[in-house]
Amino acid sequence: MAGNDAGVADATEVGHTESKERWVSDIQxxxxxxxxxxxxxxxxxxxxxxxxxxxxxxxxxxxxxxxENFVGLDNYIDAFTDDRTSIALKNNLIWVLVAPTxxxxxxxxxxxxxxxxxxSTAFRLVLFMPMAISLFASGVxxxxxxxxxxxxxxxxxxxxxxxxxxxxxxxxxxxxxxxxELVGESDAGFVTTHPAEAGEVVALPMVGIRDxxxxxxxxxxxxxxxxxxxxxxxxxxDVSSGGTDGTVDAGERGMPKVVVQAVRDGQVVATATTAxxxxxxxxxxxxxxxxxxxxxxxxxxxxxGLGWLGPDLVTxxxxxxxxxxxxxxxxxxxxxxLAAIPxxxxxxxxxxxxxxxxVFRRVTVPLLAPxxxxxxxxxxxxxxxxxxxxxxxxxxxxxxxxxxLALLMWQVSxxxxxxxxxxxxLSIILFLLVVPAIVFNIRRFRKARTG
Length: 451
Prior knowledge:
Layout: H1 2-60, H2 74-81, H3 83-114, H4 120-128, H5 135-145, H6 154-166, E1 176-177, E2 182-185, E3 189-192, E4 201-207, E5 230-237, E6 253-254, E7 259-264, E8 267-273, E9 279-283, E10 291-294, H7 314-340, H8 343-351, H9 356-384, H10 388-393, H11 399-402, H12 405-414, H13 420-450
Parallel strand pairs: 4-5
Antiparallel strand pairs: 1-4, 2-3, 3-10, 5-6, 5-9, 7-8, 7-10
Organism: Amycolatopsis marina
Keywords: Cell membrane, Membrane, Secreted, Signal, Transmembrane, Transmembrane helix, Transport
GO cellular component, one term: extracellular region
């Protein structure tokens, strides 16, 4: 009897189990159909805006610019043999190696620092604000920040200010000689064509600057009297109307602070600086002929800052703009990760005698490693597709040196080239570069979800 009862119980349990499985399967089936129904619009959108353009671009990349003639792999061969593609790939590599690393580092740094200050929320809000601005608008801002003109560009205004604190600007930029007594170029200096000796007076008339630009301390120009044993002269602005060229006329003013050198056998023997009336004196010169030289620094153009948007600096400048924009993004993720770190682990490390630096390196960073990796890979995907910031910030004269694949693809397809076959090939190349990072991120998300 006991055996029969046990058999009946087992049969009942099996029946309940089968009934439960059928019920769960029925529920899952209905839920799966409902989920598919809700996901259908998303699938349609993805098919229209991602899958179809990808397949179309792949097919279009095997045809010429007109889209009528099949050319096989010629577009890919042209892409990899074109110097523009080489520059774009090099710049993309620089972007991938530099920009995500710096943004991740700055984001972690700001997240840790703002966690320790009183107004942390306000500071984080300020750091995140650039994310609220479109890349196009940010590009316009940085195009102005790095403008060559110090009156417009903030960067050059600061550089010029610091430069002028240590290096005095020329008083007479662009000045040049009135007559053939002085020859040369303003960027190399001027020298007299006829030598002079002690006991003579040298007249050095100049033009090329406005009378209103003269220093405030300038006085009426005079030609000094001859003195035995002294070589004298005068440098003045010879621009008065109605006078005689090459002579000191009434109303003309001397040029103070001009450096004059006495040169003999190619060597500078003595140096003098003009007085407020433009006169200079060389005393106690050894007998013999001397050539007067006005060095180039007297007439050098004022320092106007650095060519931030020139071919040499344009890529670092654009990267700096992107770092300014994206640091708030990275900081937000890091701050969320820091908030989830168990405080017991940090306190235990401090109790064991670890310094704050050791706690940061050996506890905080390892615990944040998954978030750091996800942020870094996301930023890599972002920089591989960078387009609008480069397009806006880089001027036409240096856009070729700052080019990246996304911008080159647009230029080739819709710019002056108009070759959508080659542009499609570039888009497929860019897609293949982005795919590994996307796959890596997806695997990370799945691993984190499954534990």
